[in-house]
Amino acid sequence: MRSRNRRSSWRHVVAGIAAAGLVLVPSLGGVAPRAGATGTPTLQAGGSIEEAWLTGAAPGDSITLLQNGSAVANTANPGTADALGSLIIRNLTPGSGYVWDDTTQGITSTTFSVLAPGVNPPTDSALYTDQPMQEGLNYITMRDGIQLAATVRYPYGSTCSAAAPCPTVIEYSGYDTAGPTDPIPYLLSSALGQPCTGCGNPNLLPDSATDVGAVLARVSGFATVSLQMRGTGCSGGAFDLFGYPSDYDAYDAVEIVAHQDWVANHKVGMVGISYSGLSQLPSAGTDPPDLAAIAPMSPTDDLFSTGYPGGIYNSGFAAEWIADRIDDAMPAATLSNGVLVPLAATPVANVGQPWVYYEMAAEGPGSMCLANQALHGQSESLSSLVGPQTVAPGTGPGRDPSLFDRRSMSAWATSITVPVFMSGAMQDEQTGPQWPALLSALPKSTPVFANMVNGGHIDSTDPQIISRWLEFLDLYVADKVPTAPNALDALVLDDFTSQASGTTAQAPLPAIRFTGAKNLKDARKQFSHQTPRVEVLFDNGAGAVGAGDPQSTYSAGFKQWPPKGHTTTFSFGPDGLMQGGAAPHTPGSATLQLDPSQRPASDLPSSGNAWAADPDWDWTPVPPQYGAGFQTAPMTTDTTIVGPATLNLWVESATPVVDFQATITEVRPGSDQEEYVTSGFLRSSNQVDLPTSTKLFTIPSYLATDAESLDPTNYTLVKIPIDPIVHTFRAGTELRVVVSAPGGDRPLWAFDSIDTGQSVSIGFGGHTKSSLVVDVVRNVTDTPTLPTCGSLRGEPCRSYVAEGNQT
User: With 80 as the cut, is the pLDDT of residue 637 above it?
Assistant: First the structure.
């Protein structure tokens, strides 16, 4: 989730909660990279997972990495010490006998080993058992000597001790997570309109994107450890977006926290939304022995699917988010006479995180936060993860498995065995709606409880989901029969989504179930029997609390993903007709021009709020000659579609490679309005699919080596993956597909498309059976009333315009 202003409006809901003081404890000691003092540099060195780090050199020194006396063969070796006297070399072979040779100074480091993924320290090692943590900011040492900032926050209004241990969760991200000031007293003071006297330094407040752990978990009775990702904030090391060192930091942190005497059951869970939701998948994939369960909200399945939907560069949210992370990871320090000093007394714009400057000042001489800046200048270059060059036709490598697989949440999901509670929205404007692919990746034997809802990024925290989330945490992390929150805590939990999104109302928090179970075993049995693997909440925004406010009106549970339904094919035909069944269509074609300039890049102005009840949507129709539309006859019965879909498009084009967008809409009776449902995207060169693809779930390889061109005189089958459709098309409505150039359908996603007005032809009937394949499910009892067009969260409404091929 994007960083949001600390003064977000929902905070008035904590009025009436008693204020608590802030305790800031001294930093823990341990190994920390530091710059050398004036005179001969003193090198500090260590091996991380598949990489080696060095600090303490003089800026500009020539550095060679040796193993057993020989220079290591690596494109980055030899290297040059950066402005802070540091260097990291990556993609190394694990092993012993490594040493740094500063050839400029004629000195060498001590010998060290480069570590291998999956080779973990024993659970009873001193690394895990001898790092006590206390309430407030701590620095904990990882297996490679790097220190991470971690702020312990006890349950609100409570303390934790060996005599009274607390159930505990970790929230892990690269936002300013570990800012040590407690946010809840500031929420209280804001609600009461009073100064927050004695509440701690407001400049050290954590990012509001971490409120799931720093606020919601704590009012639910859990201690939270706010863990700062390496290379960001006051943590040491260098930033590498979901690289192996960060993944195994989570393993180490879980074990360190679990060994605290104040942690109940010596097991911990993980919670969080977006960034701290994504991080849970690789964290759990490393299989820490003392991880109890995870509860990711608004995750994504793969960095490529968010950064390059359909193999097209996302120049909107993905580019902006990566740029912010690069700024966050910059060092807030400089080197002066061989000694690290703060870059400035107050924050420098877009250089590191603002709280870091204030924390360095608060810590004073010997600041661990300052020392931990030493390697921040060695952040992994993200140029290989972002930018249109990665997927440029003919030159870009596409989705390089060696780069993306290790950063894939779906790949890590295959190794997760602990219970998983997952939630997300089907029109998520940030991480995207493709996250249900995780459900296909998780082992069938893993206890999984997923919640899907229409809406935006914040709707993964809707009240109907939060109640189930709290039950899950009680059962699988706290190891207790669920307990209902008190009235004030329930108010915080209930109002979170509504107030964070700026809506005026929300559904009431459903009652916590199973509170009367006779024991934990019985409660877990009831929960697992009554909570399906996949729960779909339909028509969010159409409830009685108000149009567009968070409330679903009906739901359905499924045992698997995709649900076991009826695979239905809608075939394209003349005049934009689309019909099911085996009836053949007369062969023909529809022609359109692919020109993204004909519509706005996104469907919401930059000042708009996608989470509002009635956003200022700018979802414009596709001009007739620039789109091809195909739609069904009016539905004769209510038809519920749940699952991924595939658009089989037979295309003829004089241009070898073009970009496509396929938009699924619901056309309202009378054909004067249509409502957005979902979209799919594809760069046409991605015609080779992985063996795991099915009729419903198309998974292109996205490899440049698999690229294929379109033919100017023959039709080529292009299979466009459609993001999951989770929608009931009621009797009288029509399902429509609009094919066009990418863009104009998402609030924050934008596309660096290669389309410039090229003409393409879509064939249908005969041998060119263009069609849409969907999963129609049975036995879903929907509400009989068709919601007002545009009232459903995340689903804008627009005037219906027939495309050029439609009559």
Answer: yes
